[in-house]
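Saturday, quiet lab. Running sequence design on the structure tokens for the scaffold JK sent over.
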């Protein structure tokens, strides 16, 4: 069965997701602003959920249409084949958002979509009401400039939740963005990775998972595993496939340094849960003492942005220290993500390359320094 899919993502990651989907053998991959569309069978649904490093979730795109009135929304929704997915006893709550559209009341859109789906299913199943006690088919809608997209979520918890980080842990960097930084830095299985302000260890853990080619969703569960359309054997086969692609002959090692002992304790536990603890050395070190212990080094760091005025001076003091410590050398490269537009001036050098990425809703730049005297990259 050929299914249309949609992948919502952090802004700036569309190209990375499109590339990884093509590597997974997805078809008709199309990157748009904030999402990537593709087609494929049931296998690609399981594969994308288990293996995507950068996607926020995998959704089935049930249909799209234009709507200016609530009647347009009702009729457009009712015309879609909801019975292909939702059974007589299944749960199908509705949530979503509307931006720059004639229909701006999210709660009204929510109730109208729900009513339209119910009316469609009543006609199909010849029953007056739905108990909604079965499998969860979370309907999601997006209305942008009067264009409606209706989707069913297959992932459940966001795909950035790999399972190794405590749910309540307030971290400034999503796992998907940390993985993207490692990809932008062209991290390889023979590199040595450093994060001198590692916090809870997200960058070095995602780097290790990438270097070892461990699928980020290998040890977690997904909503669609409870659906009758996707049998357990499908998921078992895709997990076996992902496990078979794991790289074991690696020279990779990572160093996570921080001044916060509590954060380092959490980082060590996170690395253990992710199964990569033997590839990472955590140590209490100040950025002022930064000095790689290996000749070659890939340094990726997410320093504080100084979003609050009182914090800005402290953040900029760190940038100056980094400018002195991150010295150009053959085999060494440095990647810094920050929202501070004056970073290069404070750091003391123009970046060799820049790339715009979003940390949630915060627009950031990744400043890349990889040129030594002979202009060679690691």
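Result came back. Writing it out in full:
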């Amino acid at each position: 069965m050929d299914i249309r899919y949609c992948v919502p993502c952090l802004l700036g990651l569309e190209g990375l997701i499109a590339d990884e989907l093509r590597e997974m053998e997805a078809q008709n991959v199309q990157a748009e602003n904030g999402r990537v569309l593709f087609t494929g069978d049931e296998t690609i649904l399981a594969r994308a959920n288990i293996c995507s490093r950068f996607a926020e979730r995998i959704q089935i795109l049930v249909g799209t249409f234009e709507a200016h009135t609530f009647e347009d929304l009702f009729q457009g929704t009712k015309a879609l084949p909801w019975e292909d997915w939702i059974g007589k006893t299944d749960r199908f709550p509705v949530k979503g958002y509307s931006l720059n559209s004639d229909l701006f009341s999210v709660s009204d859109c929510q109730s109208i979509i729900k009513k339209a789906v119910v009316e469609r299913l009543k006609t199909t199943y010849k029953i007056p009401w739905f108990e909604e006690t079965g499998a969860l088919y979370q309907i999601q809608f997006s209305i942008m400039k009067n264009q409606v997209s209706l989707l069913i979520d297959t992932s459940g918890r966001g795909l950035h939740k790999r399972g190794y980080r405590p749910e309540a842990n307030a971290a400034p960097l999503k796992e998907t963005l940390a993985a993207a930084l490692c990809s932008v830095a062209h991290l390889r299985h023979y590199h040595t990775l450093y994060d001198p302000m590692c916090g809870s260890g997200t960058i070095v853990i995602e780097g290790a998972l990438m270097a070892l080619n461990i699928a980020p969703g290998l040890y977690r569960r997904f909503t669609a595993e409870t659906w009758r359309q996707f049998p357990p054997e499908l998921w078992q086969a895709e997990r076996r496939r992902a496990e078979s692609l794991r790289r074991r002959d690696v020279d990779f090692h990572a160093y996570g340094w921080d001044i916060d002992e509590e954060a380092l304790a959490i980082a060590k536990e996170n690395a253990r849960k992710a199964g990569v603890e033997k590839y990472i050395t955590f140590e209490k070190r100040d950025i002022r003492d930064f000095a790689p212990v290996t000749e070659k080094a890939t340094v990726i760091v997410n320093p504080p942005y100084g979003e609050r005025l009182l914090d800005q001076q402290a953040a900029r003091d760190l940038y100056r220290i980094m400018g002195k410590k991150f010295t150009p050398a053959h085999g060494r490269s440095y990647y810094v993500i920050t929202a501070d537009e004056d970073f290069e001036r404070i750091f003391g050098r123009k970046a060799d390359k820049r790339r715009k990425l979003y940390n949630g809703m915060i627009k950031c730049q990744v400043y890349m320094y990889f040129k030594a005297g002979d202009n060679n990259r690691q």
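Notes for JK: The longest strand covers residues 59-66. The CA atoms of residues 101 and 114 lie 19 Å apart. Ask whether to fix the surface positions before the next round.
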